Amino acid sequence: QKAEWRLLKDAPSVTADGKQFIIAANIGTPNDMPGVHENGAEAIGLYRTEFLYMNSSDFPSEDDQFEAYKEVIEGMNGKQVIIRTMDIGGDKHLDYWDLPEEMNPFLGVRAIRLSLMNEEIFRTQLRALLRASAYGKLGIMFPMIGTLGELRKAKAILNDETEKLLAKGVKIGDDLQVGMMIEVPAAAVLADQFAKEVDFFSIGTNDLIQYTMAADRGNENVSYLYQPYNPSVLRLIKQTIDGAHKNGIWVGMCGEAAGDSVMFPILLSMGLDEYSMSATSILRIRSLMKKLNTEDLKELANQACFVSETSEENEQLVKDLMAKLN
Ligand code: PEP
Ligand code: MG
């Protein structure tokens, strides 16, 4: 890490013209917390809870989950923590959960689909999350939502568990937020409608790119199609941000693209509110943000989405713009 970046550890995340945003960290377990603090994260934008299930020989109990979530929430001292309900399936398997083999696992029973088909396991996780919400500022986030029906079903189950806990006198956080990932293109297209039913979005570009380009994110043979700067992907991102803002909710990104130096100026130009990345990327991006003036970036989003025709063109567009700054 550059010495210049280290100085920004406790600095706010602001642009050259003083606009402030949130730079957050992605984590997989409470063991990742030291890195979060060392790199000055302003929030946890994504806690991938599936590792709790994967690093275990049986389903983690409600209390085990509660302890893990509470540790992370308390560790952030009032800063927001977004915890995603389990994203099992796709390429993530559990030895103790015998799920049917599928032809196309990334297009099959994964994430929220699996949770809604196994309600008791989902309810256990939600209870642990709701109990932990009393210890700080929690956001509960649903992965892989593709339809309003799925979102409404997940929210109804969450509300049901909330009411049951409240009836028992269990304390639940006052500023609990409920959000969803935007990583299925169908949800990005209908973002304005989804935005009416959640407190926030977080764009998962790792999946959004693979599903938009129909290119398996782990398959080398089609990696040439895995194009974060493709105008089609950028339009979906812009549409998501616009749909969120039109309805008064905030929108973040927790896919790898949030910490990508070429993508970052484009996202800033679109007005993305929160950028969540691996902790080791935070200071590099905070330093880059400091050099950028949102006035200079005004036209970038429209150009990248509606004038450029290819991913390569967009990469060059940002590089030319950055060269002018230096
Ligand atoms: C994503 O899809 O961008 C994301 C953050 O989720 P994951 O990488 O865990 O699928
Ligand atoms: Mg994903």
Folded structure, characterized:
The protein is α/β, with parallel strands linked by helices. Helices cover 44% and strands 13% of the residues. It is built from 15 helices and 8 strands. It has helices at 3-6, 33-38, 50-54, 62-75, 112-117, 119-132, 148-167, 185-189, 191-194, 205-213, 231-246, 263-270, 282-291, 300-307, 311-325; strands at residues 22-27, 44-48, 80-84, 137-142, 177-182, 200-203, 250-253, 274-278. An 8-stranded parallel barrel has the order 1-2-3-4-5-6-7-8, surrounded by 4 helices. Strand 7, helix 12 (263-270) and strand 8 (274-278) form a beta-alpha-beta unit. Helix 4 (62-75) runs parallel beside helix 6. The longest helix is centred in the middle third of the chain and has 20 residues, at 148-167. The radius of gyration is 19 Å and the shape is globular. The two termini are 20 Å apart. The mean pLDDT is 97.
Tags for this entry?
eight-stranded parallel β-barrel; 15 helices; binds magnesium ion; binds phosphoenolpyruvate; 326 residues; alpha/beta
What's the helix and strand layout?
Blueprint: H1 3-6, E1 22-27, H2 33-38, E2 44-48, H3 50-54, H4 62-75, E3 80-84, H5 112-117, H6 119-132, E4 137-142, H7 148-167, E5 177-182, H8 185-189, H9 191-194, E6 200-203, H10 205-213, H11 231-246, E7 250-253, H12 263-270, E8 274-278, H13 282-291, H14 300-307, H15 311-325
Parallel strand pairs: 1-2, 1-8, 2-3, 3-4, 4-5, 5-6, 6-7, 7-8
Helix pairs in contact: 4-6, 6-7, 11-14, 12-14
Bound molecules: phosphoenolpyruvate and magnesium ion.
